[in-house]
Specification:
heterodimer; A: 195 residues; alpha+beta; 5-stranded antiparallel sheet; 5 helices; elongated; B: 221 residues; mainly alpha; two-stranded antiparallel sheet; 8 helices; 2 strands; 2% strand; flat
Chain lengths: 195, 221
Amino acid sequence: MKGKLLNLSKIALPLVVICTLMVALIAAVNHFTAPVIYENEKELFNQSIKDLFGLPRNEEPTVDPLQLPENEPLPSGALAAYAVSIGEKPLGYCMEVTGSGAYGEDLRMLVAIDGEGRIIDLCCLVSSETPGKGDKVLNDVFFSTHYLGRTVDEITSADPPILSGSTKTATALYNAVDCALALYQALTVQKGDGA
Amino acid sequence: MFKTILKQFKEGVFDKNPLLVQILGVCASLAITTSVSNALYMGLAVTAVLVCSNLFVSLLRKFIPQQVRIAAYIVIISGFVTIVEMLMKAYLPSAAEKLGIFLPLIVVNCIILGRAEAYASQNAPLPSIIDGLAMGAGFTIALLLLGAIRELFGAGTLFGISIFGQSYTPIGILSSPPGAFIVLGCLIALMQYLKKRLSVDEQHAKKEEPKPNEQTKEDTP
């Protein structure tokens, strides 16, 4: 018995040491790279908002986070909502949502909506779809323009457009748009007097 | 020393090229080489992981028990892939975005585990580092060739710059997986032809060399 334990420890101990070593190394690298990655994501987010509202690069919009409704259940996939403005002029709203049902992880998207509840534009922040396969939908002109100008009634009453070979990604995109519009509606109800 | 390094690089780039001779890491290679820039980023990422994992495996080769060596190598390789992924996301975010899911998939690239098992686990750290660089260089060159052909004839561009102009009709199949297989097959055939040709030339050269102790008729009394 003692011999068996000794043999087991001779095998397990090096593995434990190697795992500890690699974890320490990863933690050390993470300590330096995490702030840089965070700044990159923030920069991407800010640039995406400018692109969604068609703003030039040198113009900095004001992005105010909105309080999400607490008394009502939120649509599945809702992450955050922002009111976007330039000075005193409101430009619209930006919904940060996830689209479930993708081939890889959920799509993380930004959907810009104007004061009348119509989609201005949308973009994908994070996608793990297969390059050249699932991500065809995200780069396709038809899909990037199909939802523009539509309201929540027009989206929910229509069948989601599908691209052969990227069915799951197309469905996830539809779910993200649907979630963004549902979140907008929930915020509108909360506000009481409309957007 | 310099001759040994040169020999290792010749092996990595030509004699034992991981992609064109050993046919390792084919899946990621075919998927990512739709453009030269993607091929370059993938090649550099794989080289970095190869060098670091070879070094660590070599340093720990006397410490890792035989029974769990593969598990230990996988832990080391996956650790370095995670580190490379974090570094790329921080300092080369556009490259990390282009590689996408294929960056973490470097863990299952056979080249890295293969070299750890076949070379780094049996050699000292410095030769292991050079082996990692040599194999990485060979892999990167093969990827660049594949990516250049596919992007040039499949899209009419190189590094995103249009080469043939608006009038060029791209050969669409080269941008898709079947085209990737066809181009890879052609490159492998070309490599085999070159290797055979070089070995025939070497044999001819050896036959023509006079043996040192051979006496000629004029020399004999």
